[in-house]
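Dear V.,

Thank you for sending over the compound details. I've combined the ligand you provided, adenosine-5'-triphosphate, with the protein sequence from our construct and run the structure prediction for the complex. I'm sharing the raw inputs here so there's no ambiguity about protonation or stereochemistry in the SMILES, which I know was a concern on your side last time.
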Amino acid sequence: MAEQSAGKSAARPQAAREVPRGAERTAEHAAERPAEREGPATGPRPVSPPGVPTVVVDGLHVVYRIYGAGTGHGNATAALRRILLRQGAPSVHLVHAVKGVTFTAYRGEAIGIIGSNGSGKSTLLKAIAGLLPPDRGRVYTDGQPSLLGVNAALMNDLTGATNVILGGLAMGMSQEEVHERYQGIVDFSGINEKDDFVSLPMRTYSSGMAARLRFSIAAAKNHDVLMIDEALATGDRAFQRRSEERIRELRKEAGTVFLVSHNNTSIRDTCDRVLWLEKGELLMDGPTDEVIKAYEAHPGGS
Ligand SMILES: Nc1ncnc2c1ncn2[C@@H]1O[C@H](COP(=O)(O)OP(=O)(O)OP(=O)(O)O)[C@@H](O)[C@H]1O
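Below is the predicted structure of the protein with adenosine-5'-triphosphate bound, written out as structure tokens.
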């Protein structure tokens, strides 16, 4: 398992792949004592049997530091001016986005992450992907997690076709694999259903079309841990059904899928376990129906 710990750079370190001692205890504890395994969270273990842990999140805190907050003087010119005038550093505003989150994900699980706006869902995914360093706590992952968000980087000025090729290569496919899977990716995305959009620059796509193409590129490869941020919310019903089917296949191929969404139907149709975050804290971790029921009864739960 790779480890992401406080104070390390955002780049995923090439650490030993076995579970470190602390995480091992967490994982064993999780398997033996289901009701207590998620710290403050409640609810019984989901139906899928705990097997091989793929992600262990242990007391994770993520803090954003916003420099020059509230002063309107956060840019380079203002910084140079302050240095020349020997003024102090700008004020720093801290946003404590994830607070002491602990859970273990297992191979073959699809885990929904829900919570109101700003509750820390995307931040948690980015920390698992190694894109944000923990302030405190640790994240251990088996394999390289792939974060697929609606903002995942594709090049707007390049055509959809070129992005499919670059995206496939960037995910580690060989040229032959990209070539073999190209048509499948385009067909899956459905962007060419009405016109030859794949030959046009991505900036001409609607946000839904772009999100569908991103999902299709990412889903063309088997992932150890695939994290999806809202992508399903942007497609039409037919695309959502294809995506749900593909997520089920990815899980069968021994991966773990995380899905962040405000669409409770997508979560219900896709996930068997749900984490509910509020104000950065893990409020509940359990079977989808139980957690969504509690969330919907909560003010602000939609
Ligand atoms: N780059 C950033 N810099 C500073 N603060 C940030 C940054 N990104 C998010 N935040 C703050 O961190 C907190 C959690 O945000 P996050 O985007 O993780 O929530 P979310 O649950 O994914 O929200 P939403 O459902 O609206 O997408 C919020 O208070 C947000 O303002």
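A first observation: Residues 64, 66, 95, 97, 115, 117-123 surround adenosine-5'-triphosphate (CB under 6 Å).

Warm regards,
I. M.
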